[in-house]
Design goal:
Elements (H helix, E strand, L loop, with lengths): L6 E4 L5 H12 L3 E6 L5 H5 L8 E5 L5 H15 L4 E4 L14 H29 L2 E6 L3 H4 L5 H21 L4 E6 L7 H4 L3 H8 L10 H13 L7 E2 L4 H19 L1 H15 L6 H8 L5 H13 L2
Parallel strand pairs: 1-2, 1-4, 2-3, 4-5, 5-6, 6-7
Length: 308
């Protein structure tokens, strides 16, 4: 799906990952609905003034089904459609299981999981009627691995992955794609509150030994919205360094098994698709299409990733 002139609704987009996702879509020419529980400030809307797109603020409680329906209807009235929904809004309320109350557990699920259900249900009818749409659910690596003191959060994010896969099967025939992103340790207000010793322990498990950035998650969201085939998948974002490592390994495998000439041709197709929503994609594709050897391709890609 071409993202320019389309409309995206990003829940929980007043800060952190949600705000980064909103900026990424706006930079691609997508009109944006900013959302939060409180009224969207003029200062926040002003951040988007230079993108040349329409940005509106719609506040409400996603955990309330009627409010979700009202917000979606208001967005469609203002913009004409919702082509992409990013279910990003989420909260934590960390406690050890023995100290966690039923209210502690239900409150997190109500926002993180039921909220996504409410918003998804609200957009599915218009998306299905249009025979196109993309829904992106912001899960977490905690939903895949679990984490001490986060039984409620882990349950909500694991549930979001199962929800994603189920809804994807229901609506694929109507042209609607549903995917999830499972970020790891991403710099945000939530991670700022983590004690330093715990941060160090978490970073020890991260291959790149650094905290990820919200902008890296936003790139994945834009990719999932723009591509037209993947559905029912959960994606864990990687850093540019890890992306480079994966691509170089892919080149080696293609050349090894297909030979240099055929391998390079296949990598041209792969990179043309992969670069779709990355900076300077058109110029990079033009360069790649002129490359004839494995070494030239590797050098070109290394240079590109060093400069983005």
């Amino acid at each position: 799906m071409e993202l320019k002139n389309k409309n995206v609704f990003v829940t929980g987009s007043t800060r952190g990952i949600g705000l980064a996702v909103a900026h990424k879509f706006a930079s691609l020419g997508t009109n944006v609905v900013l959302n939060g529980r409180s009224e969207i400030s003029e200062d926040l809307l002003a951040q988007f003034a230079d993108y040349g797109v329409t940005v509106v603020g719609i506040s409400g409680d996603i955990s309330n089904g009627e409010d979700a329906q009202r917000m979606v209807a208001e967005a469609i009235e203002k913009l004409g459609s919702i082509d992409v929904l990013v279910n990003n809004a989420g909260i934590t309320n960390d406690k050890l299981m023995l100290k966690m109350t039923e209210e502690d557990f239900e409150r997190v699920l109500k926002i993180n999981l039921t909220g996504a259900f409410n918003m998804t249900q609200a957009v599915l009818k218009p998306m299905s009627k249009a025979r196109q749409g993309a829904i992106i659910n912001m899960s977490s690596v905690v939903g895949l691995m679990g984490n001490i003191g986060q039984a409620n959060y882990a349950a909500s994010k694991a549930g979001l992955i199962g929800f994603t896969k189920s809804v994807a099967r229901e609506v694929a025939a109507r042209g609607v794609r549903v995917n999830a992103i499972a970020p790891g340790f991403i710099e945000s207000d939530m991670t700022d509150a983590i004690p330093e010793k715990m941060k160090d322990a978490m970073l020890a498990q991260v291959p790149m030994k650094r905290i990820g950035q919200a902008e890296e998650v936003a790139e994945v969201a834009a990719f999932l919205a723009g591509q037209e085939y993947l559905t029912g998948q959960e994606i864990t974002p990687v850093s540019n360094e890890e992306k480079l490592e994966i691509i170089l390994e892919h080149i080696d495998l293609q050349v090894k098994y297909l030979g240099e000439n055929t391998g390079i041709k296949e990598m041209r197709k792969y990179m043309s698709y992969y670069l779709k929503n990355l900076p300077n994609a058109t110029q990079m594709r033009q360069k790649i299409n002129q490359i004839e050897t494995k070494q030239e391709l590797q050098d070109c890609i290394i240079t590109y990733f060093k400069n983005i």
